[in-house]
Structures are given as structure tokens and as C-alpha cells.
Design brief:
about 250 residues, alpha/beta, two-stranded antiparallel ribbon, 13 helices, about 15% strand
Length: about 250
């Protein structure tokens, strides 16, 4: 993976096809697939538990144009190969390709409300028409899994588990229950379950290529996202300065 010195985060530039190939190559292994955007970068610098999962990630994608730009600058300074916009890869970029992983792929979906989860399962089932998809909501379904020691998840024998509980809950869920979870590739997908189900409007894919997907989301759901997109970046600036001072032994 590449390390972005500014924040000390590790990411790997991947296009959607690269993610699918990585999952295919890691079937039968217990792996963690994460992603980095500005929100996760802020949590990475301020939440030790969150950071500990990212430090042990098997693959961390670039899920935000600022992250891609920061890495591009680092590569330019080191005269390394440039990056493509396609290497900014969010969950809703690669999930529609899951049918290409394996004809008999088994996918578990954990998160969102019962109705949203059910609709997302239907949508992903159409994407992986020769596979099997099963869902557990992020509320009663998740608690049932925990109380039973994840027996039904183990019985299902998933190849891929999509966890959409929001940051940092989904990361804490993985850390807290890792030993009890079955062998599979576990991918944190944030709000992708609601987006795939239609509960939230999915941003047009061209907005991601232009680096304005965040603006589309903000306009679509200002009450939920105003703080993340308009306030948190300024908090990130502060903790970035503190992080750099600490690395230099100034603080």
C-alpha cells in the first residue's frame, strides 16, 4: 500500500475491477477490506480503536478525491507513476460487479433497516444472479447475530460480507467480534446498503469522477451530512497540524 505522509494513512489505488480481482483471489481467507475518505481520515487521527483496525487492513481503497489528490501529490514529488481518476473507488463502484467474482458466490449483507436491507439484498441478488445473498438488518438483525455468537452467519458460509453500519460503528463491530466471525472477506461499506436499496439516492457516477459527489450528497441530505462536509474538514485541518507536530516531537 501507499502511505500518505500528511496523515500517516495507508491506501492502495484500485479501480473497481481491481477490487473484484482482489476479492476473487482471497476467497477462502479471512480478510478486511476498508476505504479512506476525509471522514475516515479524521476518525483515523482521533479514534485509537478505529485506527487500530485500519493498521491491520488487508486492502484499503481510496474513497474520496481529496485522498486521491494527496496521494497523487506524494507520487509526483517522488517521481512515481501518476494515478487515474478511476482509482478513486467507492463501495457503490465495485459492488455492482460482484457477480464477476464467482458464479456461486455467497454474500452476506449486514446493516440498514429491515426494509432497506431486504431491498438491497434483492438488488445485489440481481447483480450476482448465480450466487446467494442473505441479509441481516443493522438493528435487530445485528443484535441477533451477536447474541447467537454468529452461528447463522457461519452456517450461511459467506464468501463476502458487506457491513454497512456507518463509521465508526462498523469498524468497532469488526474489532469487537473478529474472533467469532467466520472466514470471509469483510468489507465496510457505510451507507452503500441504503443507496443500493434506493432508501438514499445514489449519486450519479460521473460526480465521483469530477470530485463533486460529496456536493451532490450534501444537497440531497443536508441535515445528515452538513456537519461532516462543512464542519469536519476544518476539524481535520486542526488535528492534521497536531499530528504533524507530534511526529516532529513538538507536542
Amino acid at each position: 500500500m501507499d502511505t500518505i505522509d500528511l496523515w500517516g494513512i495507508r491506501v492502495k489505488p484500485c479501480a473497481p475491477d481491481d477490487v473484484i480481482e482482489w476479492i476473487r483471489n482471497n476467497q477462502g481467507e479471512k480478510k478486511v477490506l476498508l476505504n479512506h475518505n476525509l471522514h475516515s481520515t479524521y476518525l483515523h487521527l482521533t479514534n485509537e480503536k478505529f485506527r487500530s483496525l485500519y493498521s491491520s487492513s488487508d486492502l484499503t481503497l481510496i474513497d474520496g478525491m481529496p485522498i486521491l489528490a494527496a496521494l497523487a501529490i506524494r507520487r509526483f514529488r517522488r517521481q512515481q507513476p501518476s494515478l487515474s481518476v478511476s482509482q478513486r473507488c467507492g463501495s457503490t463502484d465495485w459492488i455492482p460487479l460482484v457477480g464477476d467474482i464467482d458464479d456461486g458466490i455467497r454474500i452476506a449483507v449486514i446493516g440498514a433497516s429491515l426494509s432497506s436491507n431486504s431491498s438491497a439484498v434483492d438488488a445485489i441478488s440481481r447483480m450476482a444472479e448465480h450466487g446467494e445473498v442473505r441479509g441481516w438488518s443493522g438493528y435487530a438483525g445485528k443484535e441477533a447475530l451477536i447474541s447467537e455468537g454468529f452461528e447463522s452467519l457461519r452456517t450461511f458460509r459467506p464468501d463476502l460480507v458487506l457491513i454497512g453500519l456507518g463509521m465508526p460503528i462498523q469498524e468497532e463491530f469488526l474489532l469487537d467480534h473478529w474472533d467469532a466471525l467466520p472466514t470471509a472477506v469483510f468489507a465496510t461499506v457505510g451507507g452503500a446498503i441504503d443507496q443500493l436499496s434506493g432508501q438514499q439516492r445514489l449519486a450519479p457516477r460521473w460526480t465521483g469522477k469530477l470530485g463533486i459527489e460529496w456536493l451532490w450528497r450534501l444537497a440531497s441530505d443536508p441535515k445528515r451530512l452538513a456537519s461532516r462536509y462543512l464542519v469536519e474538514p476544518f476539524k481535520l485541518m486542526r488535528v492534521t497540524v497536531e499530528f504533524q507536530f507530534e511526529r516532529r516531537g513538538i507536542l
